[in-house]
Prior knowledge:
By secondary structure, the chain is mainly α. It has 10 helices and no strands. The chain has helices at 2-36, 40-58, 68-100, 108-123, 126-137, 141-167, 169-177, 182-220, 223-233, 237-265. α3 (68-100) runs antiparallel to α4, α3 packs antiparallel against α8 and α3 crosses α10. It starts with a helix and ends with a helix. The model has no long low-confidence stretch (mean pLDDT 84).
Amino acid sequence: MENVKMESNIFRKRTQLRIIFAIIIVILYSVSSFVLDFEGEAVFLSIPEGVLWLLKNFIPTQNSVKYLPIILKTAFQTILLAISATSISAFFALIMAIIGSETTGFNKVMKIFVKITASFFRNMPIVAWSLILLFSFKQNEFTGFLALFFVTFGYLTRTFTETIDETAGYIAEALKSTGASYFQIVFQGVIPTVAPQLVSWLLYYIENGVREATLIGILTGTGIGFIFNLYYKSIRYDAAGLVILTVIVIVTGIELLSNKIRKEMM
């Protein structure tokens, strides 16, 4: 009987907490809308009209097919940019992860240095990196490469560090107990153990890099992002729609391929 009463009280408290949480969300939304003069009802009612406009103007037409060769060419350049920037950033991220992880790190100073460095590169938005680098390196592929490299390096350093600590801790301890040297622990124990996870993360960030490279191209005037921006500003919406369709097909294809590779490796 007491158990039933206790469960009833717990259920009632959870229900009260949910109601309070919902009321807080409604109040926050109302205050934010009032401060920003946001007319939510008008915005929601305009959605169907906006969707119809997109479908009417951005659907590729027969005329837009003539742009397909240049779209595919720049899309290929964008893929290569994403692969090269992600692969090189993964190499440096692995070095940073090894010297900064709790399992294989040198000392506390290096671990703090690695965390701060990764946080700095990761927390700067890629748009901000692109605009900052644009002033120094102008509009070219190298600017896009650097922007993608910096952000991916930050994310991969953190991801690789956590992977090493979560997966290879027991391997490192076992090898230490046998008297193995530091380099034997790292290259014969830790890296072979975490290699499938690292490759899995690398493939994921290559997928993400293709999407990010499209946005970077709009800002730096390179790749498929530049082509999209060109067609959009010249009111060739059907060609811009073909660019979007091409990006979706490419990203979906890369995602399916990387998922298959990851399943084979894991």
